[in-house]
Amino acid sequence: MDRIIVAASRNRHKIEEIEAITKKFGMRIISRDEAGVPPVEIEEDGDTFEANSLKKAEEIMKLCGKITLADDSGLMVDYLGGAPGVYSARFAGEDGNDGKNNEKLLKLLEGVPANKRTAKFVSVITMVYPDGTALTARGECHGRIITEPAGDGGFGYDPLFVPDGYEKTFAQLSAEEKNAISHRAAALAELEKLLEARI
User: Would the pTM count as exceeding 0.70?
Assistant: First the structure.
């Protein structure tokens, strides 16, 4: 029997990536809208991915009364001291978008040599149960930032990020290839271990 999990995210790309990975575990993800959750905005004011992920999952779980899963993720660039980090989605400002965020990142890395353009994508997935139990899983994917966007797939910083061991960006890999190695895949694999430990 499928386990129905409510996704706290409204990001269709994220939900699709999570669903592609979780369906093999018998977990069906439905959006918060499908679960009848009111369109409230949850302020992501934590200073870690863990804090933001937990807050989102808890708030949505309280509104729907069902097991809720939240993902907080972003890019951490070593040369920039870990920025944009938790501010990845709004790096270029509140009215920013993927294009503006990528432009700002490239500008800040202008002239920085390839060996100093190391970075990692981080995903923290928290699953909160109606009884208050919370499972938190973190996944990382290490790589480097190239000097100009490449590829039409993915979203966010995907066109600039080449994972270690690859010559293509996340945006050039197929969804299947990306889902096999991504930070979100690593976090979901860790979550699966936590779920198995509960059985």
Answer: yes
